[in-house]
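Worked example 2:
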Amino acid sequence: MTTTGPPADGHHPQPADDDSSGGLLGDARGDRADTPVAQKEPEPGPVPPPPTLLRVELAKRGWARFSTFEVHYTHAARKAAAEYGDPRLARLTISSTTFKRWLAGEQIPRGNAGTVLEHMLGIDVDALLGPAPTRTFTTPRLPDDASLATARALDVTWSTSFLSPTAPAPGGGGVWQLDGHRVFDGTSVAVQLYEAEAGPDSVVIGPDDHPHLRDFIRPARRALLLAALGARRGEGLFVLDAVRARQPVAADPVDVLPIPRAYRLDDLTYGILWSVLNLDDGLLADDAVLEAERSGLDDFLTRERSAVARSAMPELSDVGTAWLGSYVCDQHILSELRADSGEPPVFWAREQFGEEAAAWLFFRHKHTYLRALREVLAEADRPYGHAFCLPHNAVKTSERYERTLLFLTLALLERHGLTTWVVTEPEYAQVDGFALVPGERAIIANWLRTDGIWQVDTTSHWARLRAYADAVRHARAHSVTDGATPAERLRRLADHLDLDWAWLTDRCAELGHYGSAGMLRPRSRLIGLEELDDVLRYVGELGGGDPAERDVADGDFGAFAGAVTGGNRTQFRPDRHRGGRR
C-alpha cells in the first residue's frame, strides 16, 4: 500500500488556486497551462471474482443468453422427469433473475432445480457454482493469409490429407489427419504453422515465435512444426518433428530454429510422413499385443503350412495385422531356404501400391530379412530376382506420392542385389507371393489380400511348380523395366510409374544428404529409417548429381546441424554411405 505525507523539510505545498506571489490568479493559471501537471493515479478498484464454471460451460455450448438457456433447461427438465420417474421435474421453470444469480455464483440451486441442472450439464452443482479452473497459455502469431492458403492447399493436392493448421482454441495447435486406403488405419498428429524467414539452405523460425514454440513442443505427444514463407511471398511448406526442436529451443540464448530446405513438403516427403506416421502409430497402439503374439509364434514357424484367420486376433489394428503377417512370411521363407540349392530362388511379390510396399521401407524385420537373404544366397552362381505385377490401372489410380513409395521399394531391392522385373497384365495380380527354387519346391508366403493374417506353405507339387515357373518366365521375358543395370531398370520403372526422373533423383539426393530422421523420428522400436536414407542416396547417385553439394558447403552445414540439434551434429552430418550417421 502506498501512503503520502508532508515533505521531510516541513514545507507544505500550497493549494493549486493560491497565488502566494501576489500575481493575478489568471496569470498563474496561464503560466501553468504550458506546464504538465502530474495526474494522480486512480485508486485500484476491487478485483472482479473469477467466472463460475457454470458461466464457462454455458459459453462453450453457446447457451449463455437467458432465452437460449431457458429452452435447454426446460428440455432437460422434461428428460430428467422421464428418466427419474418424477413428473414434478417437468414443471420446473427459471426466471432471468435466478439465472443471473446462478451465473454469478450468488445462489446455489438446490432440490429439483439442482437435479435438472446436473442432468443438463453432467457436472455436480457445487462444482458448477464454484470458480472455473484457470489455464495460462501463449497465443501464437497469426500466420499470413498466403501461408494459410498454402497449408490448406495440401488437402487438394493429396486426398489422404486433412489439415487444420490453426487451433480451434487459443494457445493450442492444429491437427493433421492422415487417412489410409488399404493397409493403414489412419491417424492424426498435432501441428503448428509458423511464419519463417528464408535462408540459403534452410528456412528459419525466428525468436518472436519461440514463446509459443516452447509451449507447443513441451508435451511428450507427437507433433510437427510447419514453416511457411507466405509473409515473404515465398513458396512451399517445410516440416520438422517437434522432438528435434526441443534441444535447440531449450538452449539459452537461441536466435532461430532452422529447418532444412530438403524437408519441404512434396510427393516424396509427404509419402514418407504419411507412411511413417500411420505405421508408427498403429504399431505403438498394438505394441503389447504384438510382443505377446510374437513370443507364441514358435509353433507356427516350425510348420511347413499354417494360416491364421483375422478373427483370431480382433484386437490388432490393420497395421499391426500387416506387421505380424509380414513377419511370419519372412521367417517362413528364411527357414525353408537352403544355401545348397542348385539354382538361386526367384521371388514374386504381391505389392501393387505404395501403401502396401511401405513395409519394405520401414519395418525393421524387412531390413533384417534382406540382409539375411543376402547371406544365405551369397554363394549363388547367378543373381536372384524379384518380380512384381503393377497393372496400368493400379498405376493410374495411385497418387504420385504412393507411386514414389513404390519406386523406392524396388530401388531398395535393387540396392540389396535383387534384379527386379515388372509385368503389367492384370491376371498376374492374384499370383501368390512365393520364393521358387527351380525344379525343387516353392515357398508360398501371403500376407496381402488374403482372408487371414498370413498364409504360408511349402510345396513340391509339379503342377504348382510349373505355374509359378511360367509366371517367372513371363516376368523375365516381358518386364517393362528390362535393363542390364539397376540404373536402367529403375529409370524404366520411373517411366512406368509416370515419375519425373530428374526430379526424383535430385530430391532423393537432397533428402538423403540430410537424412530423414530430422524430419520425422519414429517412436516404435519396430520402425527404422536407416534403409530409407541409404536408398535415397542410392537413387540420388543414379541421377549423376548431388544437389546437396551444390546447395550446402561443408563448413556451413556443420554450423547448421549444430543449430538444429543443439550441438549434437550426429543427426544431420552428411555421409554418403552410412545413412547420414557416424
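The radius of gyration is 34 Å. The mean pLDDT is 83.
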